[in-house]
Amino acid sequence: MSFSLISRSKPKHRAVDEVGRLREENHRLLTQLFGARDHIAVHEQQLADVRAKRAEAEQVVVCLAADLDDRTEERDQALAEATALRAQLAPFLAAEANANAITVPTSVRDTSRFEDQATAPIDVSDFRTRFTAGPVVSLHYSPQAADPAHIPAPAA
């Protein structure tokens, strides 16, 4: 019996196959490495852009803060000047108001005519005693509604 007739269920592990597998793995890792390098380069560029924009923004903030301080100082000076001018103008305004004052004599009601006489209070005690039972009830549907002279009897 010869050895060539014996078949093996597993193929032999040859060095050439392992070298091929290692080359494929090396190629895959190099591809990842170059991709990561490109990715890092993009992120470093973005970081540089962000840092430049941040520096520019900080410079703008410093300029705006200086402008705000200048405007605040100008406002305070204008308020102080307006207060001083208002104090100088107050006597002139008071003198003008006194010179142009509208004076009206005290009013006295003339009651010499009959129409202007004061009236006495109206006596409503009769109404109070008549309607002490409660609210006025509508008699629209009652038989007494036909008689306009009918007045309901007082509550007992």
Q: Key features?
A:
mainly alpha, 58% helix, elongated
What does this structure look like?
- It is a single chain.
- With 156 residues, the chain is mainly α.
- The protein is built from two helices and no strands.
- The N and C termini lie far apart (144 Å).
- 0% of the residues are buried.
- The model has no long low-confidence stretch (mean pLDDT 80).
In terms of topology, how is this protein built?
Layout: H1 15-99, H2 125-130
In short:
With 156 residues, this protein is mainly alpha-helical.
Mass-distribution shape: elongated
The largest sheet is: none
Rounded radius of gyration (Å): 55 Å
**Beta-strand percentage range:** under 5%
| Structural classification | mainly alpha
Model regions low in confidence, pLDDT < 50 over at least 5 residues: none
Can you give the mean pLDDT? 80
Fraction of helical residues: 55-70%
- In N-to-C order, the SSE pattern is HH
Report the end-to-end length measured between terminal Cα atoms. Answer: 144 Å
Individual helix count: 2
Q: What is the strand tally?
A: 0
